[in-house]
Amino acid sequence: MSTAYCDLRGLRGHILYLCLGLLLLLIPGEAYEKLSDDRLKALPRPSQDFDIHTGALFSPILQPRVPGTPGHTAVLEHFASFFRTTLPQWEIEFQNSTAKTPISHGKDVPFINFIAYRDPPGASKGDVGRLTLVAHYDSKLEPEGFIGAIDSAAPCAMIMHAMRSIDSALDKKWAAMKEQGMDLLEEHHGIQVLFLDGEEAFKEWSTTDSLYGARALAEHWDTQMNPAMSTFKTPLSSISLFVLLDLLGSKNPNIQSYYPTTHWAYQSLGSLEKRLRSLGKLKSPPAEPWFIDTSKDSHQVMAFGGIQDDHLPFLARGVEILHLIDFAPFKGFPSVWHTADDDAEHLDMDTVKDWSVLMTAFAAEWMELEEYLDHQDNVRREGELEESEAIRLNKKTEL
Ligand SMILES: *[C@@H]1O[C@H](CO)[C@@H](O)[C@H](O)[C@H]1NC(C)=O
After folding, report:
1. For residue 270, what is the enclosing H or E element?
2. Confidence of residue 305 (pLDDT cuts 50, 70, 90)
3. What's the number of domains the chain is made of?
4. 157, 98 in Cβ contact below 8 A?
5. C-alpha 143: how far from chain center
6. In a domain, 4, yes or no
7. Which carries the bigger pLDDT value, residue 90 or residue 392?
8. Could you give the dihedral angle defined by the CA atoms of residues 305, 310, 315 and 321, in that order, rounded to the nearest 10 degrees?
């Protein structure tokens, strides 16, 4: 804001507004609009399709997914078919790369990042900043049969639930803007999902044996150029916030705040956690708040170089990061971390579903969807709203 300066002295009211209006046009800016209690209460909670044995959304991810194995391919296909059928308005891309690993005997191993995004209709690609929700989908080679339920099958499912829960509100928002004759070129807020490959080391964690997918994508997006005159120069700079979910799905998580510049977004999640809990929308036992740094202010937040994860290649290139990982001093990672016990049966499903609702709320606030989400009057059975029922109820209120 400091570069655009308007001298307002002596200007008449309407010129002042023009001046402010121009300022707003010049600054793509962060959007964030709190949801009312009414909308929070009506947010859908995952139900049958999160069943760990039969759930259509979640159970296909709960299998070994080592790069280059059939399980890995099956999970990737599951993501693609979920977006194609449930979220047909989304664009899907794959970003492919290859790398040698310490166990590949000089051969190249393929890594495939899954990318899905939704932009306002008609917006030019380089002018949209995207809230970007990220988890890795590969699983660790050892111990044999390792499932990686918190690492990161459950985070992938949480993100899928959140995106399908806000999708029809995005339809309504952009349709309403069109109807009001608003130029959608001025709508700069899109949303994006990254399911990254090759996060895990094959042998021993090092700068070259880990983060295969994240390193390839960050480098690719840093060198690819958006069209000339775009607001954002590269796909990398189109990421308005990189929210990385990892090691989530165990009971009583401890989430720290790591970056001063995104502490405000951390605080928003902390406040949503409190509000959702007081509204009875979270079912896990409220031992203590998940977001343990909410009483800190941004200059008390320390970016210590501790946790190595998929955000690092993006952080190094200046992307804003919010790292949601269950880790606390003295406690460390959840006890199942990198053991055979990190399987579906050891998940705390109330916590998994609570996270899904929380991420839905955060995405809806970021995308400013208050006016376009279902509200409580439209929801008969709280948290059990089926899509067909939602459509029927909407039709009813329209008549
Ligand atoms: C990348 O990999 C996916 C999945 O195997 C494949 O469908 C796609 O064609 C590949 N893309 C390119 C550009 O090679």
Report:
1. helix 263-278
2. low
3. 1
4. no
5. 28
6. no
7. 90
8. -90
The model's pLDDT over 271-297, given as tens digits with 9 standing for 90+, comes to 999 999 999 999 998 789 999 999 999
Ligand 1 atom 12 nearest Cα: 96
For residue 158, is it left (φ>0), alpha (ψ between -120 and 50) or beta?
A: alpha
Which DSSP symbol is given to 226?
P
Beta pairing, strands 189-196 & 129-136: parallel
Tell me the C-alpha to C-alpha distance, in Å, between residue 72 and each of 79, 85, 106, 294: 11, 20, 21, 37
Mutate-to-test residue for ligand 1 from 77, 108, 112, highest number of ligand atoms within 8 A of CB: 112
User: Residues lining ligand 1, judged by CB closer than 6 Å?
Assistant: 94, 96, 112
Residue range 58-115, pLDDT digits in tens: 999 999 999 999 999 999 999 999 999 999 999 999 999 999 999 999 999 999 999 9
Strand residue runs (E) in the chain: 91-100, 108-118, 129-136, 189-196, 239-246, 321-325
Q: What is the CATH number of the domain that holds 369?
A: 3.40.630.10
Give the active site residue among 127, 199, 200, 310.
199
pTM here is 0.88
CA atoms within 13 A on the CB side of 313: 19
Atom of ligand 1 minimally distant from the CA of 94: 1
State the Cα–Cα distance between residues 135 and 193, nearest whole angstrom: 8
Residue 5, pLDDT score? 30
Residue 20 lies in a domain: yes
In this prediction, residue 389 has a pLDDT band, given cuts at 50, 70 and 90, of very low
- Torsional class of 50: left (φ above 0), alpha (ψ -120 to 50), beta (otherwise): alpha
In a domain, 365, yes or no: yes
For residue 374, indicate whether it is catalytic: no
Q: Domain limits at 287? A: 11-398
For residue 6, tell me if it sits in a domain. no
Assess whether 179 carries a catalytic annotation: no
CB 201, CB 209: distance < 8 Å: yes
